[in-house]
Amino acid sequence: MATIHRRNGRYQVQIRKDQHPLVTKTFSRLADAKRWAGKTARDIENELFDLSPAPGFSSIGDLIDHYLLINQKESLTESDIYRIRSIQKHLESVPIGKFKGSHLARYRDLRLKDIKGKRA
């Protein structure tokens, strides 16, 4: 069954089928999301959809590198890339399976100290 949610001004499609992993994709336009949801649900039902697992990333750094590679064609600004690389610098060695919200909280706290120190 496909569900479409509005998220951050975009449309996220989630398809859940028995015995299959969750399939999800995000679109800018609702019409594109509906079209993809219908086709993908049919393909899963007819066993035509490739359900191979996502690439195996060992660390957060690998995941961020992959994200930046995939989004090269998108309109990432210099400041977006700077922010992403800053996060990567602090989290790159964290294994994917061990990643927790506390890692982000630690990064946030360090970043806040850095910003407050520059304003003083």
Question: Strand-and-helix sequence, N→C?
Answer: EEEHHHH
Chain oligomer state? single chain
Rg over CA atoms, rounded to whole Å, is: 18 Å
Question: Low-confidence stretches at least 5 residues in length (pLDDT < 50)?
Answer: none
Whole-number total of structural domains: 2
The strand count comes to 3
Roughly how much helix do the residues carry, as a percent range? Answer: 40-55%
Query: How many strands, which pairing sense, and closed or not: the largest β-sheet?
Result: 3 strands, antiparallel
Strand content: 5-15%
Structural class: alpha+beta
Q: Number of helix segments?
A: 4
Largest sheet, order of strands side by side? 1-2-3
The residue-averaged pLDDT reads: 87
Distance between the termini: 54 Å
What sort of overall outline do the alpha carbons produce when their principal axes are compared?
elongated
